[in-house]
């Protein structure tokens, strides 16, 4: 078999991965508030035998009657005890509309950064059309943690909360 450049090959994963966060009382005040108590760990890149992951799709669902905001953060620190603002980077955030009084909850797919490898888009847009997220995603290297957080400056608890579903693959 002839050799080819790795830039021409698609990024392949060994096994699928998904994670879910649910926010009712947990929240942070802003994108610069790195309060660990207000965040939900979606992927721990410090786990043994973790070689890396690709986050392909993030869907947020708002069950609350108020508009909400959700954000994703990458933490580049080795331990939770050293969780500091200079090592935590917000990488994606999205406003969510309020859930209608009667009917389905509000749903949105977060726009992830562009990456240099082909990534299939697996989620559907809000009206059921194919997602425009092809070649968007997050590469999560060994030692990096992925967190999600609900941004609520008033820190109001919700009876019905916000769900975040992250989909991707592990190496």
Topology:
Blueprint: E1 15-23, E2 39-44, E3 53-62, E4 68-75, E5 88-96, E6 106-109, E7 138-140, E8 145-151, E9 162-170
Antiparallel strand pairs: 1-9, 2-8, 3-6, 3-7, 3-9, 4-5, 4-8
Structure summarized in a few sentences:
With 171 residues, this protein is mainly β.
Calculate the terminal CA-CA distance, rounded to whole Å: 23 Å
The largest β sheet comes out as: 5 strands, antiparallel
C-alpha-based Rg, rounded: 17 Å
What is the element string, with H for helices and E for strands?
EEEEEEEEE
Mean pLDDT: 78
Q: Please report which band the strand proportion falls in: under 5%, 5-15%, 15-25%, 25-35%, 35-45% or over 45%.
A: 35-45%
- Overall shape: it is globular
Question: Oligomeric form of this entry?
Answer: single chain
**How many E-type strands?**
9
Portion in helices = under 10%
The number of helices is 0
